[in-house]
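Re: duplicated header lines in exported C-alpha cells

Our pipeline writes sequence and C-alpha cells for each protein into one text file. With two proteins the header for the second block appears twice in some exports. Here is an export where it did not happen, for reference. First protein block:
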Amino acid sequence: MKLQNKVALVTGGTQGIGRGIALRLADEGADVVINGRGEDDDSRETLKQLLAQGRRACFIAADLAHVADCQRLVAETIAQMGTLDILVNNAGVQQHAAFLDAEQADYDRVLAVNLRAPFFVSQAFARYRVEQGGGGCVINNSSVHEELPFPNFSSYCASKGGLKMLARNLALELAPHGIRVNNVAPGAIETPINQALMNRPETLARLLENIPAGRLGQPRDVAGAVAFLASADAEYITGTTLVVDGGLLWQYSEQ
C-alpha cells in the first residue's frame, strides 16, 4: 500500500468523483477525512465504506464558499487525525447560464468554491506542513475546461483556468518546502452531476463521438490518477495537470 501511515483530506468527498478518490486513497493505506456542506446519506455511506476498509476516517462539515470554513476544516482535520499529509481539493460547483444572462450571485458562488476555496484550504495545509518540517502534496480536481471552452459555463471555465495557474504558482513557491502541487483534469465522468446527460441518449451519443476511448470515464479513473500523484511514484512531478479524459480534449467540438 503506497500511502500507508498517511492522512488525506478530500473536500467534497461524499459522492461521485470525491467518493471514488477517498475510497482509493484508503485502499492504498491512507486514513481519510471527507468533507461536505452537511451530514447526509451520501456522507454516512462513504464514511461507512471507508471504515469497512479498516482505515481511520471521519466526516467534517464545512461550506467552502466561506474562507473561515476552509481554515477550520484543515484545523479540525489535524485535531481529529493528528496530522495531515495529502490534500485533495475536489469540491466544485457549476452554473449553466449564457454569459449575457449570468447573475453575480451565481458567478460568486462558482468562483468561491472552485478557486478561492482551493487557495485558502491549500494555504492552511501548506502552513501546517511547513511548521512540521515540510513535505506533503496538494492535488486539485480541475477539469478539461481549464483548457477547453464550454459555452454557457463561463464562470466554471474561468475558475478552472484559474486553478491551472494557481497550481503552477503554488508548485514553484512550495517546492523548496518539499510540497508538491498538481491538478487532475477529468473529462466526461459518469457521476450524479451528469445524470441529466445519462437520460438524454441522443446527446450522450454525440458526446461519445468526441471521446476516442468510446466511453464515459468512471470515478475510479480519476481516483487512480490522484492516488498516483499522492504517492512516492510521483515525487518528481509538480506544477502540472494530468488529464483523465479518454482523449476528449484533443478531439472535442461544440455541435
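Second protein block, exported in the same file:
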Amino acid sequence: MLNNVKLFGRNYLKLKWNTEHLLIGCGNPLLDIVASVDKDLLERYNLKPNDAILARDEHMHLYKDLDEKYNADYMAGGSVQNTLRVCQWILGTPKVATFFGCVGKDDYAKILEKKATQDGLNVRYQYTNEAPTGTCAVLITGTHRSLCAHLAAANHFTIDHLQKPDSRQLLESADYFYISGFFLTVSPPSIIEIARYAHKRKRTFMMNLSAPFVSQYYKEQLMAAMVYVDILFGNEEEVETFAREHSWHAKDRKEIGQKLLSLPKENSERERIVIITQGHYPVLLFQGNNIKEFPVQQLSREQLVDTNGAGDAFVGGFLAQYIKKKSLDVCVRCGIWAASQIIQRSGCTFEGKPSFQE
C-alpha cells in the first residue's frame, strides 16, 4: 500500500509493505539425525560420501544405529523447510514464509513445529495417522555429507490440504512459490496445482533440481512442472545428470545452463532464470543471453564443519533478497554468503543477527 506523507512542507512517498505470507514453500518436513561417522558405516549401508538418496529397506536400521552408537544431534530439516528457515533468519521479520508439508501425529512433529516456528516460519503441516514423522540421516565424514531420507509421513501429503479455505487464503497472499525436486516423489499434483496458480496470476514459481535421482527417476513429472518454472536452481552434479538424461551432448556447464534456459515455458513473457552452484567454484547465473559468474568465498579446511544444508542456505539467502526485489547480483551474493555461514556450523543452523551487506 502506498501512502503520500507530507514532511517538512514536502510530499514524500512512503512505502508500507505487508510482509506476511509473501513466500510459499512445499516440501518434505524431516527431523534431521546428524552424526559424524566413519567410512565403514557408509560402506555397510551402500552410501556415498556426498549424495542424497531416499531410504530403502536396507537402510531401515541406520537410524537406530545412529541413535545407539553415535553422538547424534536432532534438528528441524527437510530441504525446503531449511531454505525458508534461512530466509526468515536473514529477513528478521516473522511469517514472511509459509511452509506446507506432511508430518505424523507424534512428538517428532511437535519438535519440528516448535523449532521452525522459533525461526519465524509459518508452518501449515498436514497431519497423518498413517506414518510417523519423516527422518533424514545426515552422515558427516570430514567435510562431506551423505543424506539418507526416510520420508514416512512426508509421503502422505495430498492436494486437498492446499484446497482448504485457510490454505487457499495463504496461496492468494503469496507472490512467490518455491518447490523442491524432492517433492516430485510425493505429490506431483500439488506441484502442478501451485505452478498453474502462479502462472495464471503472473507470480513467480521456482524449483530446485534437488538431487541427481530426481532427473533420473522422475523425469516425466519434472518436465511437466518445468514449463512453469521461472527460476531454476541446481548444483553441478544435478544439472549434469539432467543433461545426460535428456541426451544433451553439452561440453560444459555453461552450455547446459543455456539449454535449461531455453526449455519450453508457458509464460514466454517472463524469461526463465537459471542458477547453477558449483561448490567452491563460481556460481553461474543465466539470464537472457548473459552468463554471469560470482566468486565463492574460500574457506580453510578448519572452517569447514558441515556442508549439509549449503545448497538450501544458498537458496534461502537468494530468496531473502529476491522477495525484497533486490537485483539478481545482490540475490546471488546473499546466497553465497548464507551458504558460507551454514557450512561453518553443524547442520543447517545459525545464530545472532545476519551480517550480510549488499
